[in-house]
Amino acid sequence: MTFIVKKDPNAAKNAAIAAAKAKALRPSENPEAGAIMKYVAPSETKERIRIIFDDSGSMSSQIENAKTGVTEFMRNCVPNSTAVSVHFLCTNNEESAKLENLSADLPSQSTALMALHVSLGGTPLFTKMAEVVKMPLTNRMVAFTDGSPTDDLLPYNPTKHGLPKWLENADIIIAQALERKIPIDTVFFGGEYSENEIALLKYFSEKTGGIFLHFNPAKVNFRTAFKYLAPSLRLMLQSPSFKAELEAGRKN
Question: Which of 85, 95, 91, 90 lies closest to 142, judged by CA?
Fold first, then answer.
């Protein structure tokens, strides 16, 4: 009788991550203490990613899923190869300010994020993205939202509204991103009926060479899907079939 052994499709990826983690472990000065993790300065990392976190009121039922999703994102980053910061649309306090500093100590960033009590409010997406795209060391942005922007970077013009005005606002941010060579990955968390919101986030990603994902909460669990934008998993999204399966909720 011949037995066919099925190969784990994620084996190579998991082995690479494990090897990178093992390499990042450095011996303590005290041999009896065993190996400990020492984190490098953000400037020494290859990937320096700033995440725009939508903590608007409409996200209230999904905030814990979003926090867990960002934590899983960081857990799938290779130690000392990636520094991450998290920037909130509404929450502004001493604890959230600490998360806005790029850090390669991702376990500490994750712990602080999970403990943070967010404020909930509007969706000043343009203002926050315009602020973050200018921050030092950044070489990638990841933004997610479940709603429409409630702010404006341009003077009020009664003849322009909706998607055309949104795209004009986006162009201001995109110009900065292109100048600094910062791809912008975006995720829309909502239904297919939100055509203008989807078009806006696609615009950001297409113009800057980033990745766009659409997570319908009826199909996709944010806490398990968001991790695929992490550097160690991002290449999988270059496969249209894999991306479609992820957006359909058939990947964990």
Answer: 85
Q: Residue 59: is its pLDDT beyond 80?
A: yes
Dist CA 47 CA 231 (whole Å):
8
pLDDT at 29: 39
Q: How would CATH label the architecture of 42-247? A: 3-Layer(aba) Sandwich (3.40)
Q: What's the whole-model pTM score?
A: 0.85
Give the pLDDT score at 162. Answer: 82
Q: Which helix (H) or strand (E) holds 144?
A: strand 140-145
What are the residue boundaries of the structural domains of the chain, listed by start? Answer: 42-247
Give the dihedral sign, CA 157/149/188/85.
Answer: positive
User: Is the distance from CB of 196 to CB of 166 less than 8 angstroms?
Assistant: yes
Per-chain mean pLDDT for the chain: 89
How many Cα atoms within 13 Å fall on the side-chain side of residue 72?
A: 17
In sequence order, the β-bridge partners of residue 83 are 48
Q: Answer whether 47's CB lies under 8 Å from 82's CB.
A: yes
Rounded to a whole number of angstroms, the CA Rg of the chain reads 19
Q: Within 10 A of 59 (CB to CB), how many other CB atoms are there? A: 23
Quick check: 227 and 72 in contact, CB under 8 A? yes
Contact between residue 55 and residue 63 where contact means Cβ atoms under 8 Å apart: yes
Among 107, 115, 113, smallest CA distance to 36 is for 107
Over residues 143-197, the pLDDT tens digits come to 999 999 999 999 877 777 789 999 999 999 999 999 999 999 999 999 999 999 9
